[in-house]
# Entry
Amino acid sequence: MNDISDFHTHHGAFGALGSFTLGRFGMPGGFNHHDGSRPGDDEVFLGMARGRSGLRVLPFFRYGNSDTSRFAQGNLLGDPIPVHRVAPETIRRRLGLGSDQWRWEDGSFKICTPFGKVPDPRQGWEALRDHVAPGILAILEFDNRGSDEEATGIFALAGTAPGAGPLHTDGLVGVARNGRTGWAAPASTGARPIAGFSPDLCLSPEGRPRSPHWLGACSGLAWVVPPRTLLRVPLALAWFHEGLATHGLESRYAYQEAFGNLAEVLTNLLDRAPELERRADELDAALEASGLEPERRWILSHAVRGYFGNSQLLRTSSQEPIWAVHEGEYAMINTLDLAVDQVFFEQELFPWVTREVLDLFAHRHSFVDHLRVPGDTHVHEGGVSFCHDMGVRNQFSVPGTSCYEVADLHGCFSHMTQEQAINWPLLACTHVLASGDRAWALERCGILESCLDGLERREHPDPARRAGVPGTESTRCGSGSEITTYDSLDPALAQARGNLYLVVKLWAAYRGLELVLRSLGRVESAERAGIARGRVEEAILAWPEFDGFLPAHADGRSRSAILPAVEGLVFPMHWKDPLLEGDDLPGFVLRLGSHLERVLDGGHCRFPDGGWRLSSTSGNSWLSKIALAQAVAEGVFGLPRDGKADGVHVGWLAPGSADWGFTDQIVDGKGIGSKYYPRGVSAILWPGARQSLT
Amino acid sequence: MNDISDFHTHHGAFGALGSFTLGRFGMPGGFNHHDGSRPGDDEVFLGMARGRSGLRVLPFFRYGNSDTSRFAQGNLLGDPIPVHRVAPETIRRRLGLGSDQWRWEDGSFKICTPFGKVPDPRQGWEALRDHVAPGILAILEFDNRGSDEEATGIFALAGTAPGAGPLHTDGLVGVARNGRTGWAAPASTGARPIAGFSPDLCLSPEGRPRSPHWLGACSGLAWVVPPRTLLRVPLALAWFHEGLATHGLESRYAYQEAFGNLAEVLTNLLDRAPELERRADELDAALEASGLEPERRWILSHAVRGYFGNSQLLRTSSQEPIWAVHEGEYAMINTLDLAVDQVFFEQELFPWVTREVLDLFAHRHSFVDHLRVPGDTHVHEGGVSFCHDMGVRNQFSVPGTSCYEVADLHGCFSHMTQEQAINWPLLACTHVLASGDRAWALERCGILESCLDGLERREHPDPARRAGVPGTESTRCGSGSEITTYDSLDPALAQARGNLYLVVKLWAAYRGLELVLRSLGRVESAERAGIARGRVEEAILAWPEFDGFLPAHADGRSRSAILPAVEGLVFPMHWKDPLLEGDDLPGFVLRLGSHLERVLDGGHCRFPDGGWRLSSTSGNSWLSKIALAQAVAEGVFGLPRDGKADGVHVGWLAPGSADWGFTDQIVDGKGIGSKYYPRGVSAILWPGARQSLT
# Structure
């Protein structure tokens, strides 16, 4: 795999909903926090000046001119220092699982974002302090070993407005912007604040730091680098939100109780600098040793950053934890059809976050609906289901509702009731089977059994007419009809009823309930779940065939070939379900395997360049969903890795989505939606990937 | 004066640094708070739908389309209701001192921003609660009296991102956006929340409210208006900032201790709705009765809103009050050369704010410098002076510094030390002479006398060579030279040394010190001040003449005719100094009067259209400074009001600065700087204007 340098990626922290986004040449980035929906608006100026040769900086900015035009005309502030961009082709970037590093002629910049296991706050918040610090560590190296002249290194950000000031506290020197974002280095490194309208006015033409001019919106730190010296500087970058973090359901960031302000966070990060760098290096090494191919190592490293940058650990006034993952640019809170794909990553490190999401859905964003059967005007008893999400952009929706779902529609924004009725028990069973959290499961027997009831009724109100296929519409839809998570893909996947993707997920939900309820001693319910999944197996075995594959709908008209037909098999695969572990796979699984091989080999689900295609009737793809299909292809059916496809998928992200960090929705090789997204961590299901999480 | 409708103006509240800015057609506005530098980003949709004829709204927005493109293509959410803009020529707007009202065929919208005397927080914070509520009251009228059909009225804002939710509390129904901005009406009005991607998706094509779709960034309230009915709705609009308000010097908004959250503010405003509307009406009536001409009534009403929208009452953790006025788009805190022009307004209503600004400058942003005399390499003893400002955008500068001033410059951004050495005692003396705050003055004898010392030394270090003219440079300038507040106007006014504008202000400072020190029993100092002002009088009497006027500099080369030559006379005029009250004006005053008549009658200080021009060698004008010159022309010299000029000045604001609210810096009839500015309240010095502040 060739070096890829020119792309944005999140650099965030656990539960702090913030990022120092960096990497795209010629674009702003830098800090964004409390609103995870896009990269920040900071122009980043990072580099070195030596003598009168000007300031050479990495190309992480759009402009270099001072904006003093509002005050008067002309060159008011004396001669600026010439600013030169380091040529992109001379920059080497290495994205690892724990660090992201740039090297160029004058030095290096390494952002460390290590992650790992996080203790359960219900066992005591105190143990989480270091885990929830809202900031990251970087290591700056200014290399002046080849020169007999003194040089000046700078790290400065130009925002859209002034408001920065110096920070001098406990042995560190930094810059803070309205108490919300800031960065600092140990005073022992010789750091001094700089500020001005632009970086070319922060240094004299001779390359020396000027006195700070805080009226300007550019501010940062500068270091004198003696001749024949390499200066290595730990640099903490942090953010801080005061006051309530969420409304509707009121909460604050967990970090707000652990830290009093930005300065305390910066101090914490610098105190832990050696540990943070070591852990980042260890993650890099573990990924290298995992056996994953370079393309997959790169995608996974990118995706993990998207997850953390969208994560939010909150605390209510009664000390209850709330875990929220924002849906990237859409900023929806804990979208359930994302949660069910992210669980595989969460279970490796902090399974309690899944538990919290499950409970908050159950307590606050669940409901019992009624059902309609197409062609029948009666309203039938329904069952428990769950909302699509919990709200948007830090505003929780009214209990029992989502921000997304609207009545009377047949496509995007309609209700996703059937799918979420499947997703919640799938998420719950995966949590229980992966984490072994039996105590939790025992207390949720009631709702698990209600889910089973509801899923059966959603096949058909009349038990005699249940056929292992979702066949009803929630009355919540009004005059509309239910959709699936693939709502914006194409009609082949958008409609819920009779959808092969949902049928296989329904099987997984029944199977999960069967396993969990049996383990809890609920024999009768477990047997009922077993019978129900048998119905689904029959349905799959009886599914019509077209051109050698199973079309998306069993209506006899569908001609769509879809990869997500096999998506539901990731769950039993992850549970190590004995049904999939033996030498002989069940017949319905084999049929799905044949389908998968056919749509791949037949080219139905491939783009001309070899990238995987979710549906033969749509040009849309979601990378996180492709990863699930790949995991099943390799993990369940033993197909070889499609290296060519992985290479194409890398290109969809960079250059295809280089402006945005990890991006999920791709059309024609470019990210067009689901930008800055958390769901890419489904890649943890690739064979071997979990070994990197040591 | 013709009706003027199409312009933005602040609608703010005392000390709450916020505004619901409205009035410019085809532009966003709405809420901005905690950053007073520009109008908000809200598109405002206000109007009524009747039957299938669509929604008719005032034209306070740029676009009407739903942005669902990130989710999928096409018209996903059902048919939108057609949106029609009310034709601008059918809208009547009336801007009064207390209310701003629009009337159109379907109703009216009246924003009430009454203001008045505010008690001193050092007498107890409790009495300020109602004064510091961060919000305003509006009165909506939906007029359906002419129809037999039911109608729906709406008030909705479309921001740049979602995050709104419904507010149901204590008899009110509202919408809040992330707890930071919100609006509400009594539940008894039948208000119900609406939300969607755009206003055309908040109502059905039949004009009925749809269920809210909170994923959209448009949200608001809707009311059903029965046939043959006029519905009158009090609507509270509020904002709230949590956490620290300022850094560098840490403080919170005074309103944060008076109110727990946005809902409490909304409740307070609706509880006081009748009183707020009555007080707004009273201010309108008092202005009408003041005898001010329509043009001046309009400018004053506009200017007052700029002041309040930039005002900030803060409270430290030790309960000390801090008063800050932000410098409009530049957002500098308490720029001293603005404070000295705003004092005349403040003294009428809340003289204690001037006191707080004076003390904070003295305690935190003063210094003692050294002086240089041009052509002399020695460094001489200096004196006390004050910084240009206290910081920028809620970030206080390091004690002893401003955000603005930089060394080694000869123009904009250089130090303003001489002028601020004059401004602080002028501000102090005006406060003492207007408010009679003798107790405060007695405690400041020391610094007042130090100011006198310093001003004398700034003429020349050698007492024998003092000639009533500033003649030194502060060593703070380094290799540069001092400027004045007119830094960006032209060289005639920018240079401090030998500047006629500063000479007359220096006279006023000496005269103020003479009066105040004498009243405090400091006879010797008072006499010294009297002798010093005598020197200045001599200097003015000896000033060279060119073409019948006094050029800006006494260097024999200057050919600039400037109106600010007389600016310093506003102070003794405001103090009712006996020197100006008698029948015979002193000789130097008469000479300044001749200068003023000459530069006006000779056209030096007029633009071709009749607007006043501050300097014959610059096309820049500042409206607030013109008001000072007008006040002197009419109040000191008895010149008749220049009605034609007032008409031209109105045009500089609207249409000339219609995008920005009150704007000070005008070139070619358009606002080019100092936008969204507080200083226009100097217009309170117009004869008769004070009578409106009942």
